[in-house]
Amino acid sequence: MLGLMQNWPLTVDRILEHANNAFPHREVVTRAVEDGQLRTTTYAAVYRRAKQVTNALRERSVTVGDRIATLAWNTDRHLEAWYGTMCMGAVLHTVNPRLFPEQIAWIINHAEDKILFFDTTFTQIVEKIAPLLKTVQLYVALTDREHLPQSSVPIVAYEDFIAGQSEEAQWGGFDENTACGLCYTSGTTGDPKGVLYSHRSNVIHAMAANQTDVFGCGAKDVVLPIVPMFHANAWAIAFVAPMCGSKLVMPGAKLDGPSVYELLEGQKVTFTAAVPTVWQGLLGFLRENNSKPTTLKRVAIGGSAIPETVLRAFEEDYGVEVIHAWGMTEMSPIGTTGKLLPDHYEQDHESQIKAKMKQGRTPFTVEMKIVDDDGKRIAHDGKAFGRLLVRGPSVARAYFKNAGAKNERGECLETCGYFDTGDVATIDPLGIMQITDRAKDVIKSGGEWISSIDIENFAMGAEGVANAAVIGVAHPKWDERPLLIIQPKPGASPTKESVLKFLDGKIAKWWTPDDVAFVELIPLGATGKINKLALREQFKDYKLPTTKAAE
Ligand code: AMP
C-alpha cells in the first residue's frame, strides 16, 4: 500500500521559491570582487535575477542536463547564476580557480561545459585556458559593462547577459534525481573525478547539514560562508541560508583576517565556516589588534583537522562555539560534526576540548563504519582503526562518466555498498569518529590539495635523483606544506636549487616544496612503495624555512 501524501519532488528550485515566499526581504550582502565595496540585495531580488539567468541560458539553447561552469568567488551574482542554472535542470559545475590552468582546462573539457561564468580576478586564467577549451561557447564575466576587463577572449558582462530578460521562468518539473551540481575532486593519482550531485541529494543534504547538532541555523542568524562555493557547495551553506532565511554575507575575493573581521562585526555575523588556515589569519589579526568578535556565536571548521590552538582561541578566549566538521566532496560534503553529547557535558573542560578535537559523529542520513583490509567491520571501541566507509542519500554512488569504477555498474562502491573515504579512523562507543591517518598522502595546504605523488614523479626526473618522496610538514599558516625528500644517485650531488629549478613550470607555483632534504636512503615498505609513515616519523620535528616567516 502506498502512502497518500503529495508528490513533491525534492528539487533545489523549491529552496529559492521558499526564500522568496517566506523571507523576500532578508538581505544578501556581498563584498564586490571589483572594488571591495559592500553591496546589498535580497532573496527576492536574487530570485528574480536567477530567473533572468535561466531565460538568458535558454536563449543560448541551454537545456536540462547541460553543464554550466563557474570560476568564481562567493558573491550574489554567483548565487544567481547558481540557482538560475540548477533550477532549470542544467548542471552547475563549480571549478576551483586555485588549480593549475591545464587542470582547469582538462576539467572543463571533461565536463563539456557550454558556458563559463567567471570573476574578473580570473581573467588571466580564462585567457590562458580559452584556446584549450573544446565546448565552451560563451564567456560571461560576473560584472557590469563598466568593469569589464580588456581581454583577448570575447567576453560578455553578466549584467548585459541578463539585461532585458523576463523575471518569469518555469523552474523544476523534472525528476528529483536529475543532476544538479558537479564538483571535481583532485585525487592523489590519475585525473580528477567529477562528483555529480542530484537535486534530491542536495536538498536532503542541506536539511541534514542544518540539524541542530550540525550548523543549526535559523532566520535570526547572519551567515558568512568563507568556504567557497567551489568547495562542495560551500558546505551546503548556499542552500541552507535561503532555506532557513538566514541573512547571507558573501565575502567575495577578500579572505584575509582584517577583511573577515570587518564583515563579522559590520554585518553582525553569528555563524561562519571555513578551513583552519582562514581562522589562523583571523586569530592572528585579533591578537595583534586586541580585538574580539562581538556577535559571532558558532564557527564551523573543517577540510582538515582543527589545530588545538584554534579551537582553544575561539572557545576559551572569545566564547565562540567551534563545530569541528569532517567530510568530503563525495559526501556533499558533511560527514560528521564534533558537537558534544550529554555524556561530555558531565566531564571537565579539558575532556571536552579533547572530545572536540575528534572529527565527531554523523548527522541523520550518514552512516559510517570502519573495516579492515578484507572489508570486515572492526570494533567501534575508540582504539582499533581501519578504513572509514560511509553511505547515505547524499554520498556519491559513481563518478561522472564512471571514472574510477569499482564494479560493472560503474559504481565507485565497495562490495558492501559503502563508499571508501580513503581516510583511516577510529570510532568510539559513543559513535564519535577520529581520523588517525589518510590512506592517501595528499598534502593539505590552506584547504587545498597538493598531490605528493605528482611532485615526486616530476622530481624523479631531475638530474642526480635516485628516489623522491614528498610529505606534508606542519606549517603555522597553511596547516601543511610540502617537504621534498631526495635520495641522490650514487656519486651525484643534486642541490635544493637544482631540483626546485627543474620543478619550476612543471607544477603549480604554490605546490613548490618549501624545502628539500637529502637522505642516503628513502625507506620502502613491503610492497616496494615508499614508506611515508617512517618518513613522517623521521621528519616529525622538521622546521621548514617558511615556518619562521609565518610565525
Ligand atoms: P575534500 O574532498 O577536498 O573536501 O577532502 C576530503 C578529505 O579532507 C577527507 O577525506 C579528509 O582526509 C580530509 N578532511 C576533511 N575534514 C577533515 C577534518 N575535520 N579532519 C581531518 N581531515 C579532514
From TrEMBL:
Classification via PANTHER family: ACYL-ACTIVATING ENZYME, BUTANOATE--COA LIGASE AAE1-RELATED
Domain AMP-dependent synthetase/ligase, first and last residues per copy: 17-400
GO molecular function, one term: ligase activity
EC identifiers of the protein: 6.2.1.44
Protein source organism: Candidatus Viadribacter manganicus
Domain AMP-binding enzyme C-terminal: 455-529
Protein family: Belongs to the ATP-dependent AMP-binding enzyme family.
UniProt name for this protein: 3-methylmercaptopropionyl-CoA ligase
Keyword vocabulary terms for this entry: Fatty acid metabolism, Ligase, Lipid metabolism
InterPro entries: AMP-bd_C, AMP-bd_C_sf, AMP-binding_CS, AMP-dep_synth/lig_dom, ANL_N_sf
Highest taxon in the source lineage: Bacteria
Catalysis: reaction(s): 3-(methylsulfanyl)propanoate + ATP + CoA = 3-(methylsulfanyl)propanoyl-CoA + AMP + diphosphate
GO BP annotations, alphabetical order: fatty acid metabolic process
NCBIfam families membership: PRK06018.1, PRK06187.1
